[in-house]
Amino acid sequence: MIQIDGSRHDWLMNGRKITLHGAIDDATHKVVALYFCENECLLGYYQLLWQVFNRTGGMLPRAIYSDRSSCFFVNRGATLEEQLAGAEKSETQWQKTCRELGIELIVAYSPQAKGRIERLWQTLQGRLPFIFRFLKIDTIERANAFLSDFIDGFNARFAVPPQDSALHWKAPPHCADFDFLFSVRAEKKTRASGSFVYHGYKFNLLSARSSCVRFTLCLSENYGLRAYRNGKYYDVELAEPMCDCVGDPMPAVEKDLIYRYFYADRHSGRATIRAG
After folding, report:
1. How far apart, in Å, are the Cα atoms of 162 and each of 15, 108, 275?
2. Which of 7, 110, 40 is nearest to 68 (CA)?
3. CA–CA separation, 231 vs 138, rounded Å?
4. Could you say which DSSP state residue 255 is in?
5. What single string gives the DSSP state of each residue in 160-212?
6. Are 168 and 201 in contact (CB under 8 A)?
7. Residue 178 three-state SS
8. What's the DSSP call for residue 190?
9. Is 148 strand, coil or helix?
10. Which of 46, 80, 109, 228 sits a CA distance of 20 to 30 A from 138?
11. Is 214 strand, coil or helix?
């Protein structure tokens, strides 16, 4: 079982709080994933699962222990449409992903219940900011690049071996599509022109058939944005310049992802969209 959580803190010691998403093995005290984002979000937690999968050699946890954040669970009653459909409450993307992977979800009802990762935050908040200042790490990208080696050194010092390694991790289901499962997803439909709108911004679907088709838009730190339709992935392109304004409907984390994958130079003062 792993415990996961997010800690919002002035990690870079520049007066601006960002969120460190983390996962720790409850049995061995081993940190299995750390990832920085602007704020706590599903994109960050999916990146944790990618790290866990890669760092354990393609294995997954048997259970995940977390709080009741809206990233993980539906914190409302069922809508009228859902009640008429016979559902008491809908599932979040996180719940659907973990169900497909056979991962049990356990809910903590207080910070004290997930004390393992709460103590980890106390330790990291007392160490990482000063390490970042000493190494002159002042961006989220550079901080994430540093974390891989840091995790190895941290675990070498503080982790303990499991009592039964055979029951520690489990193999994932056969033929699971991790690119799809570990992505933030949205159901979309293109217009006759092959374009679609996501959070107020216009994109184009790059497919031989793109007019009036339904597809799943997938967002991931591994590949940016892609469209999934009939078992295949298709590229999408940004069809108009993006801007930063008050009341912008797109979450900051997703906008930053789009900037990094579509813009050739986000500091040039002009909207240069990267080809390909």
Report:
1. 40, 23, 48
2. 110
3. 40
4. H
5. ---S-GGGT-BPPPTT--HHHHTSEEEEEE--TTSEEEETTEEEEE-SSS-TT
6. no
7. helix
8. -
9. helix
10. 46
11. strand
Q: Is 134 helix (H, G, I), strand (E, B) or coil?
A: helix
Biggest CA-to-CA distance, the chain: 59
Torsion angle of C-alpha atoms 223, 7, 68, 246, degrees rounded to 10 = -70
CB neighbour list of residue 147: distance below 8 Å, 6 or more residues apart: 34, 35, 36
Task: Report the alpha-carbon distance of residue 118 to residue 120 in Å, rounded.
Answer: 5
Query: Rounded to whole angstroms, how far apart are CA atoms 125 and 18?
Result: 12
Q: Give CA 115 to chain center in angstroms.
A: 23
Q: What span, in angstroms and rounded, lies between the C-alpha atoms of 220 and 47? A: 8
Distance CA 44, CA 183 (A): 10
Helix axes 93-101, 42-55, angle to 10 degrees: 20
Q: pLDDT tens digits, the chain, 276 residues: what are they?
A: 899 999 999 999 999 999 999 999 988 999 999 999 999 999 999 999 999 999 998 999 999 999 988 889 887 655 556 545 555 557 899 999 999 999 999 998 877 778 889 999 999 999 999 999 999 999 999 999 999 899 999 999 988 887 776 567 889 888 889 999 999 999 999 999 999 999 888 999 999 999 999 999 999 998 999 999 999 999 999 888 877 666 667 788 888 888 888 874 433 333 333 333
